[in-house]
Design brief:
Strand order of the largest sheet: 2-1-3-4-6-8
Distance between the termini: 6 Å
Number of strands: 8
Strand content: 5-15%
Shape: globular
Helix content: 40-55%
Radius of gyration: 18 Å
Largest sheet: 6 strands, parallel
Number of domains: 3
Order of helices and strands: EHEHHHHHEHEEEHEEHH
Number of helices: 10
Structural class: alpha/beta
């Protein structure tokens, strides 16, 4: 039986659930997506693989809402640091010079309107996603949630002993830092999905450990690291950046096919991708 540990990305806070219940619920979702069907049991897919999910969204919610004014997922409630992260991301999206992306909310909305129009996305869902994503990224980078999330992942790796670690979105940053912080943790295959690890100015230079000479590297306990990035995934920027900025990373060819609308970043689409299933097959 293949043991898989999943590390979720942004937008996974489950109010009213304990961390254990939330972890079990996420494991069932991931198992269903990986197996292409409803899970046959909690935490297992149709092939009987044992799947566990590391849940840390409650930590981001707790630390991210301390003393905060305004709506939870609105551009108006973003602070200066969060807007700075959005602005650097927009530059990687190919923001034209004529479109302002300064600190004020109005120019930021103008830039996001351009992005939504250019990529055929809905403007409200674009604004919601950007506010949610960069709020959680900022909370991880600058609060105790960073260490607390890594501790949860490390504890699950010790107790679950996965052969495969699947890390999506912000979860790829959590997993990367956890593995470097705990070099004795071993995993045969690390797959990062829709990862922002290489995002310049926002994520990459703030990693722990800090990149040396503008290069990161495969954590010492990882036998193989593969990065999967949908070509339309606006979180996984710059295109091919993880492979260029980190030593010892493979990328499967061909890349995951584009997904319509804003679903390019949804974890269930990555989990159902044939490229991922082909990667996992040798470890079954």
């Amino acid at each position: 039986m293949m043991r898989i540990l999943g590390v979720h990305g942004v937008g996974n806070y489950r109010p009213g659930q304990s961390p254990e219940a939330a972890s079990a619920a996420l494991a069932r979702i991931w198992a269903a997506a990986l197996g292409g069907t409803a899970p046959v049991a909690a935490g297992s897919d149709a092939a009987g693989h044992e799947i566990t999910a590391a849940y840390y969204a409650d930590l981001l919610h707790h630390h991210g809402h301390r003393g905060r004014q305004g709506g939870d997922d609105s551009l108006d409630s973003l602070d200066d640091f969060e807007r700075e992260l959005v602005a650097t991301w927009l530059e990687e999206c190919g923001l034209p010079d004529a479109t302002a992306a300064g600190r004020a909310t109005a120019p930021l909305r103008q830039a996001l309107a351009w992005l939504a129009r250019t990529h055929g996305l809905g403007r409200p869902v674009t604004e919601w996603f950007v506010a949610r994503f960069f709020r959680e990224v900022a909370t991880y980078l600058r609060t105790p949630a960073r260490q607390e999330a890594r501790t949860r992942v490390a504890d699950l790796m010790v107790s679950h002993r996965p052969r495969v670690l699947l890390a999506h979105s912000l979860g790829s940053v959590v997993a990367y830092e956890t593995l470097w912080e705990n070099p004795s943790l071993r995993v045969e295959l690390l797959v990062t999905l829709g990862s922002p690890l290489a995002l310049p100015h926002a994520v990459f230079p703030r990693l722990q450990p800090a990149p040396a000479d503008q290069r990161g590297g495969r954590p010492p306990g990882v036998v193989r690291w593969v990065n999967l990035a949908d070509p339309g995934d606006l979180v996984a920027l710059p295109p091919g950046g993880v492979e260029r900025c980190f030593e010892g990373v493979d990328r499967e060819q061909p890349r995951t096919q584009p997904i319509h609308a804003f679903d390019f970043h949804k974890v269930v689409n990555y989990l159902a991708a044939p490229q991922l299933r082909a990667l996992l097959a040798p470890y079954a």
